[in-house]
């Protein structure tokens, strides 16, 4: 049972997490343009911060809005949210660690099973990235919107219904898959 | 120890090109043509002031020379004046000895990436003859430079006259032997070796082995061993690249050879751990023989815990018994015999702990500070913000904060200790945390190998401080 005070604290944490997420995303975009190319260490640190912020954001959002979202309960939401980083295509350029870490062992198994298929699902998407598109304009822009994977759609739907300000989560979604 | 600000304030300015550079080995000619074409293309931005930012400083093993590298790819070497008996009060000062363009911006066509010319590290080789040798590296290529003096010139050639024009053979009536005549001292820098194409990621450090024959170059995921004589081959001795890049959790941030044991080296990671490796165990040193890590304090956990625990520099002590590491807020001294926790931990600027979010937003949290031992391993030094740098005496446990700033210290004046006011009432002379200038950071410092002379790089200014002379 969350009291009003708890809700307030939650909102603060939520906002903080969201702000950090937004800042991180803008740093990610900016780092694409910097001289010398993407720096692996910096990208890794950014992704770690983003992951913590995203986890806090979702956990505090869930706590503050217990009736959030349609049918999907906690578990699928967790795995779908973790799945799309898994689906990040491993770039030949050494610059894109996924936000996913080895620490989430139980989820990792599920993800690998799920994402294994997803990786094979879109070879066209893979080969498009392989041609060095990272230095071109990011392909997450609304006008060039790629077809959402089924997992992504479900996740995006959850976010949209659960949170009025879905832009950040949606952007994170796209950035990670583009990255 | 009281430090006196000597008059050696050197402000590096453009022009970028210098005259002493000779073309590298002939085997690199093809590449140098493409580089010339690229230079104008890459000069769209105004790098004038940014190019002067000092990116590395290093004394040589005798302390006679001090090298600095900057973002524009230049190396400036200072030499200490010989002390004259008549001026015993005046310790030898450092003056510019040689300036050369070590690295140029390049373009990697395969990956469509610019390669920055910024000099990441300089390491001197031990001196074996009259010439000086140093290794300088940017993100991708290490170069061996020879710096030598020329003070004589042959004159009296038979076939050409003093201007170099070919003499008319009919005017040559006798033979003469060219004679070496004195000339104004000229210091030349020539690139003797270029070690390239060995790193996929960005080189963060180089370290010369105590055997004086090999060295290592380290990038985010690999450590490569080179022989100083051989440029077309290097051995990969550490590789932490995961089979699946998405599982990457850790990168290498620095590596250094042990000062005496030529088979031992250490490398630090972004997770705050250090691994000591022995090259005799296996060709690929993936298994460490010692692993140094301090368990994280759960009470200080925050969004930024991982970033601030990333080690930015690792240095062996001169006696080879200790390791020093620098992370964002602390410097730690480790005993090589004790792996589970550091021997000593020093807070550099703990008042920043509550400001990590702002420091993340303005990118300061990614700053990589270096740390350095003094010659006797009794004092350690590292930089901070607002042009402050900190020294910690390991024996007396005293520490001091000093400032490298022209406004706040007259030449030859003794540096006044500074203090940051953390909370409550600010005393006169103290500076509050919110007034700190985060654009003025001291990332690079070096200490003379035997004497109390330090060089501190503050953006594009180099400060050299010496111990007070009684």
UniProtKB/TrEMBL annotation, chain B:
Residues 1-39 are annotated as: Disordered. GO terms for cellular component: protein phosphatase type 2A complex. Residues 1-11 have a biased composition (Polar residues). The keyword Repeat applies. The keyword Secreted does not apply. Keywords: Repeat, WD repeat. InterPro entries: PP2A_PR55, PP2A_PR55_CS, WD40/YVTN_repeat-like_dom_sf, WD40_repeat_dom_sf, WD40_rpt. Gene3D superfamilies: YVTN repeat-like/Quinoprotein amine dehydrogenase. GO terms for molecular function: protein phosphatase regulator activity. It comes from the Eukaryota. Belongs to the phosphatase 2A regulatory subunit B family. This is Serine/threonine-protein phosphatase 2A 55 kDa regulatory subunit B. It comes from Gouania willdenowi (Blunt-snouted clingfish). The gene is ppp2r2ba.
């Amino acid at each position: 049972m969350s009291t009003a005070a708890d809700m307030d604290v939650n909102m603060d944490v939520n906002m903080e997490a969201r702000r950090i997420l937004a800042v991180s995303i803008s740093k990610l975009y900016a780092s694409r343009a910097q001289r010398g190319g993407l720096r692996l260490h910096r990208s890794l640190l950014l992704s770690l911060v983003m992951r913590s912020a995203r986890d806090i954001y979702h956990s505090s959002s869930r706590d503050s809005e217990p009736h959030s979202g349609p049918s999907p309960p906690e578990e699928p939401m967790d795995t779908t949210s973790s799945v799309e980083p898994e689906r990040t295509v491993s770039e030949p350029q050494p610059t894109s660690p996924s936000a996913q870490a080895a620490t989430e062992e139980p989820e990792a198994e599920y993800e690998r099973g799920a994402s294994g298929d997803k990786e094979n699902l879109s070879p066209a998407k893979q080969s498009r990235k392989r041609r060095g598109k990272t230095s071109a304009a990011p392909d997450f822009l609304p006008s060039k919107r790629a077809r959402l994977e089924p997992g992504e759609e479900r996740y995006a739907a959850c976010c949209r219904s659960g949170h009025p300000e879905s832009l950040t989560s949606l952007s994170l979604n796209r950035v990670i898959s583009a990255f | 120890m009281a430090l006196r600000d000597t008059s050696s304030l050197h402000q590096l300015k453009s022009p970028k090109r210098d005259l002493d550079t000779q073309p590298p080995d002939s085997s690199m000619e093809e590449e140098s043509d493409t580089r010339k074409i690229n230079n104008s293309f890459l000069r769209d931005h105004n790098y004038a002031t940014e190019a002067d930012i000092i990116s590395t400083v290093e004394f040589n093993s005798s302390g006679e020379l001090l090298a600095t590298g900057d973002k524009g790819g230049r190396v400036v070497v200072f030499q200490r004046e010989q002390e004259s008996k008549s001026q015993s009060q005046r310790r030898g000062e450092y003056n510019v000895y040689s300036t050369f363009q070590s690295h140029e911006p390049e373009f990697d066509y395969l990956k469509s990436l610019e390669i920055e010319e910024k000099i990441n590290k300089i390491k001197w080789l031990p001196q074996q003859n009259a010439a000086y040798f140093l290794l300088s590296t940017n993100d991708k290529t290490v170069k061996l430079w020879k710096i030598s003096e020329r003070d004589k010139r042959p004159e009296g050639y038979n076939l050409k006259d003093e201007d170099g024009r070919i003499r008319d053979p009919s005017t040559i009536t006798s033979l003469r032997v060219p004679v070496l005549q004195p000339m104004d001292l000229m210091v030349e820098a020539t690139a003797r070796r270029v070690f390239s194409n060995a790193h996929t990621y960005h080189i963060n450090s180089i370290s010369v082995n105590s055997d004086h024959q090999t060295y290592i170059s380290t990038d985010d995921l690999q450590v490569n061993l080179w022989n100083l004589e051989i440029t077309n081959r290097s051995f990969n001795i550490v590789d932490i690249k995961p089979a699946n890049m998405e599982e990457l959790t850790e990168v290498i941030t620095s590596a250094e050879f042990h000062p005496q044991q030529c088979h031992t080296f250490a490398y630090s990671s972004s997770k705050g751990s250090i691994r000591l490796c022995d090259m005799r165990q296996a060709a690929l040193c993936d298994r460490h023989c010692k692993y140094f890590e301090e368990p994280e304090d759960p009470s200080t956990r925050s969004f930024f815990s991982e970033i601030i625990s990333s080690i930015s520099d690792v240095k062996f002590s001169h006696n080879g018994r200790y390791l020093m590491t620098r992370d964002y807020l602390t410097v730690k001294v480790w005993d090589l015999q004790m792996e589970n926790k550091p021997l000593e931990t020093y807070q550099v600027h703990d008042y920043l702990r509550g400001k990590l979010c702002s420091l993340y937003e303005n990118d300061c949290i990614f700053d990589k500070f270096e740390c350095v031992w003094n010659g006797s391993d009794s004092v350690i030094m590292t930089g901070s913000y607002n042009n402050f740098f900190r020294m910690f005496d390991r024996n007396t446990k005293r520490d001091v904060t000093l400032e490298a700033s022209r406004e706040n210290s007259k030449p030859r004046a003794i540096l006044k200790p500074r203090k940051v006011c953390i909370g409550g009432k600010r005393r006169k002379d103290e500076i509050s945390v919110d007034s700190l200038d985060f654009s003025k950071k001291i990332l690079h410092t070096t200490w003379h190998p035997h004497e109390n002379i330090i060089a501190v790089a503050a953006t594009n200014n180099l400060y050299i401080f010496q111990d007070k002379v009684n």
